[in-house]
């Protein structure tokens, strides 16, 4: 294990509780706070070996975790807005479909009535008998 990894481990042992508590205050969820803190740790494990350990590693972890928390909250808001937009669109489409179905049923009924008229009035029958046939007399 390299010196950088040992330093990261030591910083994590000291700062992890404070980090999780601060993030939980922002997110109101301890589980999410733990995930965000661990993501900050993973970022530190990726960045610090290449760039060196920052002067204030605890503050660096806090900043990384808070940025991820802000991203998560923004993503959540965006998702909520998208769900609301989809719900409005579906409601509008359902209304249009209902109107189209109602119109379609009216058309079917009109076609059925027309079909009945032509069934009851064959072409060879005189016009005065057609009226009697439709009235049922």
What tags apply to this protein structure?
137 residues; mainly alpha
Task: Report the mean per-residue pLDDT as an integer.
Answer: 85
Structural class category: mainly alpha
Helicity, in percent? over 70%
Query: Strand portion, in percent?
Result: under 5%
Poorly predicted spans: none
Principal-axis shape equals rod-shaped
Sheet with the most strands, sense and barrel status: none
* Count of DSSP strands: 0
Q: N- to C-terminal separation?
A: 105 Å
> How are helices and strands ordered from N to C?
HHHH
Radius of gyration: 36 Å
Blueprint of the fold:
Elements: H1 3-27, H2 30-51, H3 57-120, H4 127-135
Helix pairs in contact: 1-2, 1-3, 2-3
Describe this structure in words.
- Helix 2 packs across helix 3 (57-120).
- The model has no long low-confidence stretch (mean pLDDT 85).
- It is built from four helices and no strands.
- It is 88% helix and 0% strand.
- The protein is mainly α.
- The radius of gyration is 36 Å and the shape is rod-shaped.
Give a nutshell description of this structure.
The chain has 137 residues and is an all-alpha fold. It has helices at 3-27, 30-51, 57-120, 127-135.
């Amino acid at each position: 294990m390299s010196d950088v990894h040992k330093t990261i481990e030591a910083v994590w042992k000291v700062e992890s509780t404070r980090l999780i508590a601060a993030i939980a205050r922002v997110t109101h969820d301890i589980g999410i706070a733990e995930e965000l803190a661990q993501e900050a740790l993973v970022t530190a494990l990726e960045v610090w070996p290449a760039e060196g350990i920052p002067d204030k590693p605890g503050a660096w972890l806090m900043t990384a975790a808070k940025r991820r928390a802000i991203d998560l909250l923004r993503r959540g808001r965006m998702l909520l807005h998208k769900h609301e937009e989809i719900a409005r669109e579906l409601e509008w489409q359902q209304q249009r479909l209902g109107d189209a179905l109602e119109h379609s049923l009216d058309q079917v009924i009109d076609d059925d009535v027309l079909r009945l008229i032509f069934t009851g009035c064959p072409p060879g029958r005189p016009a005065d008998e057609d009226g009697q046939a439709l009235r049922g007399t």
